[in-house]
Write a structure and sequence with these properties.
The protein contains twelve helices and 14 strands. By secondary structure, it is of the alpha/beta class. The protein has two domains: 199 residues, Thiamin diphosphate (ThDP)-binding fold, Pyr/PP domains (Rossmann fold, 3-Layer(aba) Sandwich); 123 residues, Rossmann fold, CATH 3.40.50. A seven-stranded mixed beta sheet has the order 3-2-4-5-7-6-12, with helices on both faces. Helix 7 links the parallel strand 6 and strand 7. It starts with a strand and ends with a helix.
């Protein structure tokens, strides 16, 4: 076991995967010599060579299309899109080709492509470096969508994604790269070395795709969330003294509906939180599942805590984030007697 931040854990995952399987190749803008803008691929080109860690042109559509071609011909490409905001030029390739390949070929071909991309705000990156577009990909049949919240899960989930025979879009919350953050702009991120899940095995292991984790057991209310918001939710529940059960989804598609419904049937109350905008955000899908499966178990309307329905506001970044106070307001609302 070693203490790692999320950057180091992701780097270790790719190193392990490449060492075990020569078919695993990396591709993306500045990932080789430079090691990536966040240094997630640092040192891998020196270790495995330019033929396996490939610096690509600034052409996201080309990156995804080339990865598809590699996969069809027996490789396991891991394509990095430098920021999630840049993924849209490759969206048609992902939706129209990558996600459908197994089905349109009647199983003759598979598409073991992993697309890694940093998401979310918190680095003062403005509108074109801070988006959380995960909901766009959960709507696409044939894709698996992942967003880890800690180094241990990040490494295990990334190895599982690389080894999976179907395409995975792997979102990495950049606010969590160096440490967990509770959403208060006046507090620095807490080092991962102080967090239990900052301890990461050196070798190979996987975290199953499609399985949520209960990060805090409770009986009064369920908080369903993922990514950065796991820590914001925990801070809010602790500050209010609420016996909240916090579920970290980890994988958004396929969604672990059993874990969500089991918890809500137990607590009877639910808050759903994510950083992305509210309208058609992934929280709406969670609410739909709970209304269908847990309606008669609910003791109060489900509350959503999300980003604003606006373009990403550079000047009001920390107001946009659904921080601890907004989660506390939702918890108070859902806990009020009917």
């Amino acid at each position: 076991m070693a203490q790692m931040n999320m950057i180091q854990a992701l780097n270790s995952a790719m190193d392990i995967a490449m060492g075990r399987d020569p078919a695993v190749v990396l591709m993306g803008e500045d990932i080789g010599y430079f090691g990536g803008v966040f240094r997630v691929t640092d040192g891998l080109q020196r270790k495995y060579g330019e033929h396996r860690v490939i610096d690509s042109p600034i052409a996201e559509g080309g990156i995804v299309a080339t990865a598809i071609g590699m996969a069809v011909n027996g490789l396991r490409p891991v394509a990095e899109i430098q920021f999630a905001d840049y993924i849209y030029p490759g969206y048609d390739q992902i939706v129209s080709e990558l996600a459908r390949l197994r089905y349109r070929s009647a199983g003759a071909f598979c598409a073991p492509v992993t697309i890694r991309t940093p998401c979310g705000g918190g680095i003062r990156g403005g509108q074109t470096h801070s988006q959380s577009p995960e909901a766009l990909f959960t709507h696409v049949a044939g894709l698996k969508v992942v967003m880890p919240s800690n180094p241990f899960d990040a490494k295990g989930l990334l190895i599982a994604a690389i080894e999976d025979d179907d395409p995975v879009v792997f979102f990495e919350p950049k606010r969590l790269y160096n440490g967990p953050f509770d959403g208060d702009p006046h507090k620095p991120a807490v080092p991962w070395s102080t967090h239990p899940k900052g301890e990461v095995p050196d070798g190979h292991y996987t975290v199953p795709l499609g399985r949520a984790e209960i990060v805090r057991a409770g009986s009064a209310v369920t908080i369903v969330t993922y990514g950065t918001m796991v820590y914001v939710a925990a801070a809010a529940a602790a500050n209010l003294g609420v016996d909240a059960e916090i579920i970290d989804l980890r994988t958004l598609a396929p969604l672990d509906t059993d874990a969500i419904c089991t918890s809500v049937k137990k607590t009877g109350r639910c808050v759903v939180a994510h950083e992305a905008t509210r309208m058609s955000g992934f929280g709406a899908e969670i609410l739909s599942v709970l209304q269908e499966e847990c309606f008669y178990d609910l003791e109060a309307p489900i509350q959503r805590v999300t980003g604003w329905d606006t373009p990403y506001p550079h000047a009001f970044e920390w107001e946009y984030f659904p921080g601890q106070k907004r989660v506390e307001l939702a918890l108070r609302a859902v806990m009020e007697p009917a």
